[in-house]
Amino acid sequence: MSAKQDYDCVVIGAGVQGSFTAYQLAKHNKKTLLLEQFVLPHTRGSSHGQTRIIRRAYEQDIYTQMMGEGYQLWAQLEKEAGVTLYRQTGLLVMGPETSGDYPLVKNTLLKNKVPTVILSRDNFHQHIPNVVLSEGHGALLDVTGGVLFADRALKAVQDQFQKLGGVIQDNEKVTEIKPGPVVKVMTSGGVYQARNVVITAGPWTNKLLAHTGFQLPLETVKINVCYWKEKTPGTYGVKQHFPCFVVTGSLESKEHIYGLPSNEYPDLVKICYHIGSKTDPDYRDLQTDTSDIDILKRYVSRCIPGLVPEPAVVESCMYTLTPDRHFVLDYHPNYSNIVIGAGFSGHGFKFGPVIGKLLCELSLGEVPSFDLSSFKIRRFQSHMKSAL
Ligand SMILES: Cc1cc2nc3c(=O)[nH]c(=O)nc-3n(C[C@H](O)[C@H](O)[C@H](O)COP(=O)(O)OP(=O)(O)OC[C@H]3O[C@@H](n4cnc5c(N)ncnc54)[C@H](O)[C@@H]3O)c2cc1C
Ligand SMILES: O=C(O)[C@@H]1CCCCN1
Predict the structure, then answer these.
(1) Are residues 177 and 296 in the same domain?
(2) Ligand that comes closest to the CA of residue 93
(3) Domain for residue 332, yes or no?
(4) Is 78 in contact with 148 (CB distance < 8 Å)?
(5) Which domain holds residue 175?
(6) Ligand 1 pocket, 34 CB below 6 A?
(7) Given this model, what pLDDT does residue 302 score?
(8) Is the confidence metric ipTM above 0.95 for this complex?
(9) What would the pLDDT profile of 36-72 be if each residue is shown by its tens digit?
(10) How many domains does the chain contain in total?
């Protein structure tokens, strides 16, 4: 085992959140190490794949407001790295007009003055041909919604981090954490010491936290990422201005479906179900439940008639869910020099630059730029148990 190496901060996990956190720390002239268990780039966590949705359409103000800054920070990275990371397509939100999430999203968008177009049942077809709006559903467009080029974004932020002098060690799994005023981090390849540690380990968060005698109420689920073939190529393409879309659920209809225009694979539209089946991140391929695909097949044949209602490609990804689906952005309850960013619950990618900034602020002991009360660990008081 190599000799100990000292850093101001060690960030564990080079997904979108760890990569942006490391980048922010390096920007603040902190000597930073970013550790990743797999060889980069990899497809075994939650941040891989070519695309993610970016939007301001949320039920809660805090997310809509955070994304106000999010868009600026994405644009800044595009400029610094000289790459395109965002494509505006608009985000179509459809859902039961008077119940569930749809009216909440509509209210948040209007209250925060986000450019929004409310579509009536009469003009829906003019704007969105080849989609059937379900009975009783409302529809609106979050105009600045669109696509983030995820793999490209991860590479861009990691490259910028290294340009700032940051060190990435991939293929190096953290095997132990010894908390203290100086934290010791043991890996498959070495031993490191740092005054501050940030844990951004996605679905593996609790496996890492176990070394610190603490567990969060997180659940990891596998999502089948399905791509559906256009009957006529281009019908739902970015070039035809087909938007990203989400179908919000209600108590009666548990649809929770979302999609992105055909782009990454020729003539294939990505449409997924937002609810997955429980899995262990080290054995996710053994989770073979496909009941979500059956729900999607029924939805596609009913509402997106220009697609073949059988997926042509199925990939996989994981969500790390908290009980309330809000993030965890907080200090470790027992060690104030360990910061945790976890539980992004299937909607964290777009926030990457903001999360990186916030976790960096926490790690530096600064007042965070946003009110983080919704993201504190103490809200789980009744769920938490000690790992010791
Ligand atoms: C199918 C799907 C669709 C999604 N769609 C959207 C969307 O449209 N818009 C959106 O905003 N978000 C979306 N998300 C959510 C978003 O992608 C995630 O919230 C985000 O990627 C989480 O990033 P992370 O850095 O927390 O986790 P990860 O990407 O999993 O990163 C954690 C990293 O830590 C590493 N690690 C773990 N343990 C160790 C260890 N012991 N030693 C070293 N390294 C370790 C892992 O290997 C991994 O690379 C989607 C997610 C999925 C799965
Ligand atoms: O974060 C998002 O924007 C999407 C919405 C639909 C479910 C997956 N995540």
Answers:
(1) no
(2) 2
(3) yes
(4) no
(5) 5-47+151-217+324-379
(6) no
(7) 95
(8) yes
(9) 999 999 999 999 999 999 999 999 999 999 999 999 9
(10) 2
Q: How many residues does the chain have?
A: 388
- What would the pLDDT profile of 208-222 be if each residue is shown by its tens digit? 999 999 999 999 999
Q: Is 28 a catalytic residue?
A: no
Q: 110-118: which pairs have CB atoms within 8 A and are 24 or more residues apart?
A: 111/61, 112/56, 112/61, 112/64, 112/65, 112/68, 114/56, 114/57, 114/64, 114/142, 114/143, 114/144, 115/142, 115/143, 115/144, 116/140, 116/141, 116/142, 116/143, 117/141, 117/143
The mean pLDDT value for 249-264 works out to 78
Tell me how far the alpha carbon of residue 246 lies from the centroid of ligand 2, in angstroms.
Answer: 7
363 and 338 together in one domain = yes
100 CB within 6 A, ligand 1: no
Q: Is the pLDDT of residue 269 over 60?
A: yes
Residue ranges of alpha helices (H) inside 43-85 are: 61-81
Task: Say if residue 232 is in the same domain as residue 311.
Answer: yes
Max Cα separation, the chain? Answer: 70
Is ligand 1 within 6 A of the CB of residue 47? yes
- Asked whether residue 367 is assigned to any structural domain, the reply reads yes
Does a structural domain hold residue 81?
no
Task: Note if 111 is an active site residue.
Answer: no
Quote the pLDDT of residue 383.
Answer: 72
**300 and 266 Cβ atoms separated by less than 8 Å:** no
Instruction: Report the C-alpha gap between 57 and 66 in whole angstroms.
Output: 11
Residue 1 banded pLDDT, cuts 50, 70, 90: very low
Ligand nearest to the CA of 148: 1
207 included as an active-site residue: no
- CA 24 to ligand 1 center in whole angstroms: 18
- 241 part of the active site: no
